[in-house]
Specification:
This protein is α+β, with helices and mostly antiparallel strands. The protein has a domain at about 95-165. It has helices spanning about 5-15, 20-30, 35-40, 45-60, 80-85, 110-115, 125-135, 150-165, 190-215, 220-225, 230-235; strands at about 60-65, 75-80, 95-100, 105-110, 135-140, 145, 170-175, 185. The strands form three sheets. It has a four-stranded antiparallel sheet with strand order 3-4-5-6. The chain has a two-stranded antiparallel ribbon with strand order 1-2. It is elongated, with a radius of gyration of 22 Å. The two termini are about 25 Å apart.
Length: about 240
């Protein structure tokens, strides 16, 4: 388990960062090392580590919200993060071979570096650019074809195969809408969920530091060194519990 000081340092570093950089900063809490070294880890392996970090920091149950695409009703969903972890290590470090519609394609699994490279392309453009970037080779009728010239139906088949090979990179669940009953798909984007929870925790913790430092004259390291139970009792003593 990382210390409160390390968690706050990660939060501070990520405040002005984009989504992918935040995910890599969070990943560094699990794996250590530099963020540059972690950029080349497949996204599914990274996110599986983030699910494990989320369980260690905030527990097994994750609650989110999703909007029905049919009637726009918003509802909560509950997700057990151990569902991602109990399958063992992802197999995502090599390449995936795909045969679809007469095409033979070899694809390497996307990494955080790839996500950064296509971030400015917009949602749909980024998806296509990401797949094209990760195509190692593509052949049809014995002829080599560049990855950015694959037809949409072939790219769709390649994307499905990549998701199957690296399942933690695309975690979602489908539930009936509470209003219209039609199926609603919720994407469990663990970097976003975990960052939001870390942000809320960090702001609460800094408030604790402020209140106890103001009351007792303690430094930030003094307050952070307290166990959560002792800190809560001191806050109750000064009337802020």
């Amino acid at each position: 388990m990382r210390s409160a000081t390390e968690l706050l340092a990660t939060w501070e570093s990520g405040l002005a960062a984009g989504a992918v950089h935040r995910a890599v900063l969070l990943h560094a809490l699990v794996r250590g090392g530099t963020t540059g070294e972690l950029l080349d880890v497949p996204v599914g392996r990274r996110d599986r580590d983030l699910f494990a970090l989320r369980r260690a920091l905030f527990g097994e149950r994750l609650t989110g919200r999703v909007t029905c695409p049919h009637c726009e009703t918003e509802q909560e969903f509950d997700f057990d993060v151990t569902a991602v972890l109990r399958g063992g290590e992802d197999g995502g470090s090599g390449e995936v071979a795909v045969d679809v519609r007469g095409w033979s394609v070899r694809l390497r699994l996307p990494t955080s570096a790839d996500l950064l490279a296509v971030a400015s392309a917009g949602p749909e453009g980024a998806k296509r650019a990401l797949l094209a970037r990760c195509v190692v080779s593509a052949r049809r009728r014995g002829v080599d074809v560049p990855g950015d010239r694959l037809p949409p139906e072939v790219l769709a088949g390649v994307a499905r195969s990549a998701a199957d090979a690296d399942p933690a990179s695309d975690v979602c669940l489908t539930m009936p809408c509470v209003e219209c009953g039609r199926p609603t798909r919720a994407v469990v984007d663990i970097p976003s969920f975990l960052w939001a929870e870390l942000d809320a925790w960090a702001r609460r913790t800094l408030l604790d530091v402020h209140l106890l430092a103001s009351s007792y004259g303690w430094s930030e390291p003094d307050v952070l060194a307290l166990s959560p139970t002792r800190r809560r009792h001191y806050l109750e003593l000064v009337g802020h519990g």
